């Protein structure tokens, strides 16, 4: 072993691949499955005080029953803006006002809409796979660069490449498992 051999930062690669999985989970949480969840409102932004603001920063989001989400808006002047943001969000939910409380009844999903949502979930999963493969490519580039600069033997190169590939395969498998679970959840009546 030469003294100037370098280590590949697998912790950074692991962290970045885990980040892609966390992002996927966030996107999956925003998909409606016919059951109420506070996370389904995470992507909705309200124009509040001159800037886009998440709904959970202008009111309290609750799930009092399986098919109902309520938002208790703290500032009365914001109720109309929150209602408008929900209507324009594409969630397919019709808000109902009750003073400063906005009620969001979650309608049953029909078969066609469930199939559309499974396709959206598959797209989210593919984006996560691409992100993980991009991290893999970066890791492989680091290894090739170290080998080209003479900091790594060919045997070490193969070991590092195998480790990065193993990490990639494990993360891709976790994406596939998450997708399968989400699709079952969406199709469940």
From TrEMBL:
<keyword id="KW-0648">Protein biosynthesis</keyword>
<dbReference type="Pfam" id="PF01765">
    <property type="entry name" value="RRF"/>
</dbReference>
<dbReference type="GO" id="GO:0002184">
    <property type="term" value="P:cytoplasmic translational termination"/>
</dbReference>
<dbReference type="GO" id="GO:0005829">
    <property type="term" value="C:cytosol"/>
</dbReference>
<dbReference type="InterPro" id="IPR002661">
    <property type="entry name" value="Ribosome_recyc_fac"/>
</dbReference>
<feature type="domain" description="Ribosome recycling factor">
    <location>
        <begin position="24"/>
        <end position="187"/>
    </location>
</feature>
<dbReference type="InterPro" id="IPR023584">
    <property type="entry name" value="Ribosome_recyc_fac_dom"/>
</dbReference>
<dbReference type="InterPro" id="IPR036191">
    <property type="entry name" value="RRF_sf"/>
</dbReference>
<dbReference type="GO" id="GO:0043023">
    <property type="term" value="F:ribosomal large subunit binding"/>
</dbReference>
<keyword id="KW-0963">Cytoplasm</keyword>
<comment type="similarity">
    <text>Belongs to the RRF family.</text>
</comment>
<protein>
    <recommendedName>
        <fullName>Ribosome-recycling factor</fullName>
    </recommendedName>
</protein>
<comment type="function">
    <text>Responsible for the release of ribosomes from messenger RNA at the termination of protein biosynthesis. May increase the efficiency of translation by recycling ribosomes from one round of translation to another.</text>
</comment>
């Amino acid at each position: 072993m030469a003294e100037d051999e370098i280590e590949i930062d697998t912790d950074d690669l692991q962290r970045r691949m885990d980040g892609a999985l966390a992002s996927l989970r966030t996107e999956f949480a925003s998909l409606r499955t016919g059951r109420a969840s506070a996370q389904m409102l995470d992507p909705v932004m309200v124009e509040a005080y001159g800037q886009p603001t998440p709904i959970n920063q202008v009111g309290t989001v609750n799930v009092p029953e399986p098919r109902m989400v309520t938002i208790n808006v703290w500032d009365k002047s914001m109720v109309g803006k929150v209602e408008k943001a929900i209507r324009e969000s594409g969630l397919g939910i019709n808000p109902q006002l009750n003073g400063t409380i906005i009620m969001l009844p979650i309608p049953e999903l029909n078969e066609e809409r469930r199939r559309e949502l499974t396709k959206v979930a598959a797209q989210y999963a593919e984006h996560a796979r691409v992100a993980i493969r991009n991290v893999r490519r970066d890791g492989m580039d680091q290894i090739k660069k170290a080998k080209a600069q003479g900091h790594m033997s060919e045997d070490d190169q193969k070991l590092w490449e195998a480790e990065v590939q193993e990490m990639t395969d494990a993360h891709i498998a976790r994406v596939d498992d998450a997708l399968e679970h989400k699709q079952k959840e969406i199709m469940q009546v």
